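Exercise 3.2. Students should predict the tertiary structure of the chain below and write it as structure tokens, then compare their answer with the key that follows.

Predict this chain's 3D structure.
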Amino acid sequence: MINKVGIIHHPTRKKALALVDAFRNVFHTESIEVSFILPLEDWQVLDLTALPKVDLLVSIGGDGTLIRVSHLLLNAMLTVPIWPIAAGEFNFMPDRIDVSKVHDAVQKLKLGSIEKWQRPVMEISTTTDEKKSLFINDVVFVKDKPLDILDISVFIEDEIVGTVKGDGIVVATSAGSTAYSLSAGGPIVDSIAPVYVVSMLNPHHITIRPIVVSMGRKTKICINGKPWHLLVDGLSDTYFDSKRCLQVTLAEGISLVYIHVDGYYSWIDNIRSKFHWGSRYVESDNS
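Answer key:
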């Protein structure tokens, strides 16, 4: 039973602001209390534990907004479900709901016509201390200077896969497989598959291909020599100037719950419509 909701939204997009107004009005009509509405501006200082407790958190924006809202929940160690609503550029993860369909979507939400997706969370940690970072999309190891080449050693379950020269490496969850990893030549992975993908960035070896790893296995990545950066979900950037080994594992006991209302989200439709899977591009000369 959903009695109280909170809304966090992209601060400037016109569609996001229009959807905020529509959801606020419909929730009021349906006797659902909107406990807070917050623009996602300086999100890193936002503390959800200081806000009223809610039964559902509505994220209105794009994929980046959803990732930030997800990290706010992780930081606060809260287990509130998130309903992502599309108002961004790519919109691969949120429900696509027009302003005119908000009432219908909220009605379906009240009736329980929804799908719950429990999304696993992964963590990356150094092998020398206890510092850990959680991620839900991807982590990127990338060189600092354009002309540098990194020596990258990859271990799975402490067995070396190999050492490769290149610009960097991406480790992406199944849901993150359609982001940076895809641009690096990685596969499109079913977003609910319990796996992650290890993809090299511009390897100096023509035989290097991405590896799909079971989420239950740990992967250790050692970067040798030149300075490099670690990017976590595109939200943090840590600089390293020496050899470091970091380990990627499943974060035990930690997960996120996303809900999708029936009729407004389809992962398969996203593959077809956003990546034009199966389409034929034919350029005609009408001159």
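Discussion points: The longest strand covers residues 244-261. The chain is about 20% helix and 40% strand.
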